[in-house]
Every structure is written in C-alpha cells, then in structure tokens.
Specification:
heterodimer, A: alpha+beta, five-stranded mixed sheet, 2 helices, 5 strands, 40% strand, B: mainly alpha, two-stranded antiparallel sheet, 6 helices, 2 strands, 7% strand, elongated
Chain lengths: 131, 137
C-alpha cells in the first residue's frame, strides 16, 4: 500500500474512533445538495514530500481535515476541531511499514461559507519514517 | 582603509559577517529571505487555477519589519483577489480544493536548505562585486 493511502486510512480510523462521521469525499444528493450526515469531517488534500536521510527514508506530509457543520454557530465546528486536536496533535497513528515521528497541528480556522454552513479547516503536519 | 580578507567556506563567511560587517550581514539576509519569498510567490502563481489573471497579479512577496533578531518576508494575496481562500480550501463554485499555497509550501520544504544556500551565495557574490566596483578595485 502506498504511504499516501496508508496515512489517509490511519487518519480515517483515528477520527472514526472518536465517533465522528468521516468521509473521504462527502456524498452528494441527486439534486446537487449534500447527502451527508451532518456534522461531518472530510479528509482533504494530503501533500507528501520526501524526508529522506542518509540511512532512512520517510515522508513529510501535511493532511488537511475539513469540518462541516450546519448549526449556524461556530461552536459545533470548533468543538469537533478540538476533539480532532486532542486525538491527533502529538498523537500516534496505526500505520503499516511506517512510524509517526511527530504529528502536530499547524493551522486551524473556521469560516462561515455562503450557504450559511460552517467550514473548519485544520492542517496537521506528519513526519513519517519507513520501518 | 583597505585590507585583505581570505574567505574559505561558509564558516568563514559567517565569522567575517558577524565580526566585521554585522550590518552587511543583516542586509544580505534580508535580501536572501526576500528572494526566497519572491520564489514562493512565483511558485504559488504557477499553481493557481486559470482565471482572469487577477489572482496571479495579486500574489506578492512583501518585506516585513521583523524583530531585532529575526528577518521576515511574507507572501500575501491582495484584497482584490479575496476569493483565493475559496480556491485554496475548496469553497469555490467548482468545489475543488486547489491547495495551491499548501502545495507550494510542501514543495519548498525539502528544497529550502539548498535554495537558501544558492540564493545566499549569489547575493554575497553580487554584493562583493558591487563593493569592489564602488571602491575602484
């Protein structure tokens, strides 16, 4: 399995373990609206760069995690972001053939989007080492 | 006053800048950091989705004040292209998370040391040549 998929799977499992609804891509209804169970978390863009040393190979990854809420207030969105922070920031992930050297949140924001839902964005930077 | 200085390697460069020309060192660092920011802005422009060109024009590197011990430059998007965040985070009409700034930053990370040394060396050589010309050498 590629490191990208492995990392995404590990994040998916970690967040699902919190009881959150997690999607790779949130489902859409036939009319173009959302068919997702709100509030939900979506694993967004994962960018991986090489992080090799003379005698080891690894990855420097940034994973974006989106939180969507419909309550109209920021509280729910920020509450979920807090739960994710407690789980992921300086936490561990279960990966095959890779180990987490460090994982930390680098950015967290919450925006009101035009359809009056809330959109939270968090970025977690993960340094991975191949075992 | 004229004197000869022999420089061998980066450790010598650091020592001489620190001991003989601390202000010159600061100017050199400022130019290096700004050049890196300009590079980042250019790389981000290459990753923006095609539009009217307003977003491309609005991405700029800016020298920041910094502090006594730090030097800073930033990459900013001018207010006219406020919609950059919608494109970056996938809130735009196309619902695509373009992540142009995230990708740019990630591409820079493994390259930063090499890029820094390259730009620093180029700036140092250019400054030395300018000073030599100015002193009639």
């Amino acid at each position: 399995m590629s490191a990208e998929i492995d990392l995404q799977k590990a994040i998916f499992q970690a967040l699902s373990g919190l009881g959150l609804t997690v999607y790779d891509a949130a489902p859409q209804a036939i009319d173009g609206g959302s068919d997702a169970n709100w509030p939900y978390v979506e694993i967004g863009f994962i960018s991986m760069a090489a992080f090799d040393t003379a005698n080891s190979t690894g990855f420097d990854a940034v994973a974006r995690i989106h939180t969507r809420s419909k309550t109209g207030s920021m509280a729910e969105c920020k509450g979920i972001q807090g739960q994710i922070y407690e789980r992921l920031h300086r936490g561990g992930l279960t990966l095959t053939g890779l180990q987490v050297v460090t994982m930390q949140r680098e950015l967290s924001r919450c925006d009101r989007v035009p359809d009056s839902t809330m959109h939270g964005v968090c970025e977690y930077r993960v340094i991975l080492d191949k075992i | 006053m004229t004197f000869d200085v022999t420089i061998r390697g980066i450790a010598d460069v650091n020592r001489i800048l620190k001991e003989i020309a601390p202000n010159e060192a600061k100017n050199l660092m400022r130019a290096t950091v700004q050049a890196i920011a300009v590079d980042v802005a250019k790389a981000a422009k290459d990753r923006t989705p095609d539009d009217t060109g307003l977003l491309d024009k609005s991405i700029k590197a800016k020298r920041e004040r910094g502090t006594r011990t730090t030097i800073a430059s930033s990459v900013r998007v001018a207010g006219a292209a406020f919609y950059w965040r919608f494109l970056e985070y996938g809130q735009g009409p196309d619902n695509v998370e373009h992540a142009m700034f995230l990708q740019t930053l990630q591409a820079l990370r493994p390259e930063i040391d090499r890029k820094y040394l390259e730009i620093f060396t180029a700036k140092l050589i250019a400054r030395l040549a300018r000073k030599r010309r100015a002193s009639g050498g």
